[in-house]
Amino acid sequence: MPQHTLFYRFGVALFIGLLVGLQREYSYDEEDKPGQKTFAGIRTFTLMGLLGCTAAFLADLFDSPWVFVGVIIPFTVLIAVSYYVSAKRGEMGLTTEIAALLIFLTGGLSFWDEMALAVALGVITTALLSFKGELHRFVERINREDVLATLKFAIITAIVLPVLPNQSFWPAPFDVLNPYKIWLMVVLISGISFLGYVLVKVVGSNRGV
């Protein structure tokens, strides 16, 4: 593998870890919890990303996926011990520990040239960590009807649509009637309606453009 490719992949792993670590540092400073120590900050998350990338590099070097497994298992045990110690102190959150495991995995994905997936996971992780307060406030506004509406949309999108045949069974001129494409239109219309429903819940019914 060319050196510039190797440095690029390690650079992506470093950047993702740096991004999440920066968010954790900022979030912890913002919460200002006296007497409590953070599980991991900007340096630790950056090293976790590099560790995952290094583990994948060694697995490729020795042509054995067991090298990566041999690194991730003790890493996961270390995270579990950290959570146990935090729980003993009354800190029951598991968010940072899960984020740490994800950053390790994004390091491996970066080396295996799955850049889009690695960066997407890093950005989504950072966003979920950043919008903690907003997500909690959003959940507080949800009632049983909202859950049922979400469930209905999930059923027509993730269950019904994939099982429909993507071909026509009727003779001309009705051969343009494709069950999959017809239901896809139903999903699109339902999606627009569902998005509007969510926006009303988020910003309120009295706001508009």
Topology (SSEs and partners):
Layout: H1 3-31, H2 42-61, H3 65-88, H4 95-111, H5 115-130, H6 132-140, H7 144-163, H8 179-203
Helix pairs in contact: 1-2, 1-4, 1-5, 2-3, 2-4, 3-4, 4-5, 7-8
Q: What's a quick, concise take on this entry?
A:
This protein is an all-alpha fold and 209 residues long. Helices cover 77% and strands 0% of the residues. The protein starts with a helix and ends in a 6-residue tail after the last helix.
Describe this protein with a few key phrases.
209 residues, mainly alpha, 2 domains, 0% strand
Total number of helices: 8
Distance between the termini: 53 Å
| Mean pLDDT over the residues | 82
Largest sheet: none
| Structural class designation | mainly alpha
How much helicity do the residues have?
A: over 70%
Helix-strand string:
HHHHHHHH
Q: What is the total number of structural domains?
A: 2
Ranges with pLDDT <50 over ≥5 residues?
Answer: none
Structural notes for this entry:
With 209 residues, this protein is an all-alpha fold. The protein folds into two domains: 3-131, no CATH class; 141-203. The chain has helices at residues 3-31, 42-61, 65-88, 95-111, 115-130, 132-140, 144-163, 179-203. Helix 2 runs parallel beside helix 4 and helix 3 (65-88) runs antiparallel to helix 4.
